[in-house]
Design goal:
Layout lengths: L11 H18 L5 H11 L4 H32 L4 H29 L24 H23 L7 H20 L3 H27 L1 E2 L2 E3 H41 L6 H30 L15 H18 L3 H8 L2 E4 L2 E6 L1
Parallel strand pairs: 2-4
Antiparallel strand pairs: 1-2, 3-4
Helix pairs in contact: 1-8, 3-4, 3-5, 4-5, 4-7, 5-6, 5-7, 6-9, 7-8, 8-9
Catalytic activity: sphinganine + octadecanoyl-CoA = N-(octadecanoyl)-sphinganine + CoA + H(+)
GO biological process, one term: ceramide biosynthetic process
Protein name: TLC domain-containing protein
Length: about 350
């Protein structure tokens, strides 16, 4: 295929057949593959300076300090002023911080992919056209890499020491490590073009997730129930579910994995660390599928009536889950013993949630 001609995006069957054929052929041809060749390839093709490493650590610390400052000076006071429930007051700053960052980073990636001359979204194989070892990284893409790489370096620390621990937090740490490895090595080996596309396809879901969670926290505050936040949380949940599949399970494998598994070898027959990078990307795809199972479980519970409100399925594990289940059971028992006067209050435009009568607000 000629350079400049857009290759049509394959289907799942085309991806599996072409990728498996190309990768098996590359494995058979790699007679010298091994530790010695990997070491030599690393020394010959990895380009990263101490200045860039220093900027990475400086920005990682900067994100941590910015988050702490925003949490103490803005997010926590705002949550307290809004009279959120105590458990929601504790979790709201985390979601607010992530919403701010991912909105900023995804907007910048969108700008680069759709409002500049880069064609990597519409023509992913073009990410490997004219690739050269040690080629100069454009400044605008280098800035995107510095922002994202330092943020994921910060996120490894934040998941362990700053965020609430959830049932998939261990997987989240692995995700951050894999993502940071992809960002670092793709920059060093000058695979930054396809890396920019990977970042774009993943950040949009984090925006929707944190937006949904914030509306869940805000729909019950100050003893009142706010219908508008309930509506927004349900809309955000539906949008999150759709875009997760569309961006991470449809575009990501058919655009990114096809380009890295098939097109990269067509453009650069001896491209370095071909199997290493594709292994990391396949690991990322497996984690996307793992989290999609949470989404399927969520939809199934809603459809079968097991869940009435939008909640984060990653939360309420272990002892906290048992305490929450006991509290819900006690609330149900109290509801069953309510007298007719309480029922009349509900009929007059009040909302009962967890055994508490609350006014409805828009």
């Amino acid at each position: 295929m000629r350079v400049g001609e857009v290759e049509p995006m394959p289907g799942y069957t085309g991806l599996l057949t072409r990728a498996s054929t190309v990768m098996l052929s590359a494995l058979r041809d790699c007679s010298a593959c091994g530790l010695e060749l990997s070491k030599r390839t690393l020394l010959d093709n990895a380009y990263i300076t101490w200045t860039e490493i220093g900027l990475f650590f400086m920005c990682a610390v900067m994100w941590t300090q910015i988050r702490r400052g925003l949490t103490e000076c803005l997010f926590k006071p705002f949550a307290q002023r809004c009279c959120l429930q105590p458990k929601d007051t504790a979790k709201m700053p985390e979601s607010a911080w992530k919403l701010v960052f991912y909105t900023m980073s995804w907007s910048y990636s969108t700008y680069l992919l759709f409002f500049t001359n880069y064609t990597f979204f519409h023509d992913p194989p073009s990410a490997f056209y004219d690739w050269k070892s040690g080629m100069t990284v454009p400044t605008d893409i280098a800035i995107a890499y510095l922002i994202q790489g330092s943020f994921y370096g910060h996120s490894i620390y934040a998941t362990v020491y700053m965020d609430d621990w959830r049932k998939d937090s261990t997987v989240m740490v692995v995700h951050h490590v894999v993502t940071l490895a992809l960002i670092t090595f793709s920059y060093a080996f000058r695979f930054h073009n396809i890396g920019l596309l990977v970042l774009f396809l993943h950040d949009i879901n984090d925006i929707q997730l944190e937006f949904t969670k914030l509306n869940v926290y805000f729909k019950t505050r100050g003893g009142d129930y706010y219908l508008i936040h309930d509506i927004l949380s349900n809309m955000g949940s539906v949008s999150f579910s759709i875009t997760w599949f569309w961006f991470r399970l449809y575009w990501f494998p058919l655009k990114v994995l096809y380009a890295t598994c098939v097109s990269s070898l067509q453009s650069v027959p001896n491209i370095p660390f071909y199997f290493f990078f594709n292994s990391l990307l396949l690991t990322l795809l497996c984690m996307n599928i793992y989290w999609f199972l949470f989404i399927v479980a969520f939809v199934a519970k809603v459809l079968t009536g097991q869940m009435k409100d939008v909640k984060d399925l990653r939360e309420y594990e272990g002892e906290e889950g048992a305490q929450r289940a006991a509290a819900l059971l006690a609330a149900q028992q109290r509801l069953q013993s309510e007298d007719a006067g309480h029922l009349n209050n509900s009929a007059e435009g009040k909302h009962v949630q967890n055994g508490i009568t609350k006014e409805k607000h828009l």
